Amino acid sequence: MNSSTSGVPLRADAARNVTQIRAAAIAAFRGRGLGTPLEEIAAAAGVSKATVYNRFGGRDGLIDAVIGELVAAEMYAIMDRAGRVDAPWQAIATYVGDRRDLQYREPAFTDALLMLYPNSAQLVALATAATDMTERLLRRGHDAGVLREDFTAGDLYYADVANGLALRALRAPSREDYDRRTRFFIDGLRPR
Questions:
Q1: How far apart are CA 187 and CA 192, in angstroms?
Q2: Distance between CA 26 and CA 16 in Å, rounded?
């Protein structure tokens, strides 16, 4: 356990380093995803890479320290919002639309989907919760007859991964075009 999470109070300069590293990591991960080199994050924070390791134990610890602010808090809110919608189709449409909105705005969402950092406890917990919610919503949709029978949680996962990789590799479409394509995707989930 490192000193930033052990409960031991930090000296003022160490606490300042932790704050600066967190801020630099959030800015870097927001712009380029969770794979941003730690050397760049350390340089932006004005510390050495060794300080990042000392305070956070490496990339997984740093991800755990900031993923809530980057993706998890919003993803849990998306799951909660969809879970409170009574109509099965509207719950699915809300969930899928909100996920794709987050993906458009936050590159780290695709990294979270891909589970590129399986040693991050926060990412594992988020993935488990999202998978459970996806399966629950799709089961409701199938039971109500409002969702294509052949559409699975795996299908949504791969569609989101493909969408995220396209957003990363290609010039991002305008928000208007992206939202139009999201509506096409959601409409395609209805039974034929």
A1: 11
A2: 15
